[in-house]
Task: structure prediction
Amino acid sequence: MDARFPAIAEQLLMIERELRLQDWWDEVSPSAQALSSVEPFSVDTLDFHQWLQWIFLVRMKQILEQDLPLPNASGIMEMAEMVYAARPRESLGLRAALKKFDQLIVDAR
Result:
């Protein structure tokens, strides 16, 4: 197991917490078609918070549970900066959580 797994698992919980606090957590999953987008961050079918919830968090949970290799890089914070440029205060906690996640990924390089 990668030594970063516990810290990453904790950070994923913080990301979920921030999504819930901002009421950006959906109770109903998007359609299978929306979830099958091949575009980066599924920009053509999902809002960024939906991508975080239904693609990113699900995939990262699978990686941790199955002891798979972590990604070599992460640029989620950069995307969040663009998406939430007009809502800097509202998104501060989420952006901070994503920044810490990105840092955990790059720390092992």
In short: The chain has a mean pLDDT of 95. The longest helix spans residues 48-65. The CA atoms of residues 26 and 50 lie 7 Å apart.
